[in-house]
Amino acid sequence: MSQSSKIRVLIVDDHAIVRKGLATIINRDPEMTAIAQAEDGQQAIEAFREYQPDVTLMDLRMPKMGGVEAIMAICAEFKQARIAVLTTYDGDEDIYRGLQAGAQGYLLKDAKVGELMNAIRAIHHGQKYIPPEVGAKLLQRISNPELSERELEVLRLMAQGMGNQEIGTALIIGESTVKSHVNRILSKLGVSDRTQAVITAVKRGIVNL
Predict the structure, then answer these.
(1) 89-99: per-residue pLDDT in tens?
(2) Distance between CA atoms of 178 and 165, rounded to whole angstroms?
């Protein structure tokens, strides 16, 4: 197979060893070639502009600019961009944000090599690739009540260990307003106290510690 007819893959990950491993796996497949690598979202956008790959494998959490922001920027500029999230994070919020940003697939780094190859081929052919366990979490996320922007701000400060008074001072709102936000957060997350709220939020990828 000629170099030009191979599926050209861009690898985006902040760990050099992961990038190297993925490039080795991809280059072993006679139908694919790893054409470029990037270590953060900003580099990913620049590499995409330069190489215009057929498929991009995008990590989510990286320094400078994360995967979700990079996916949004690339998809805004290149309508035909085909991107698969490849991450260790399987929280429903991570999945939701990655796919909402424009990714066509979502894979976890513990996926088998065959599954990764199948995902790259499927996405290259314009199909979506969402494994059943990821799809189940996505459905769960869609059916969960959405937190408002203000509730997210309160939740992030809760995760930093702040009490109601400190949150009120930080957001310039009254303590009673903070309390009502906290109650709504607990209700929407289906938990009974602040500690459970933070644990659930971290597990689902709503907040990052």
Answers:
(1) 888 888 899 99
(2) 8
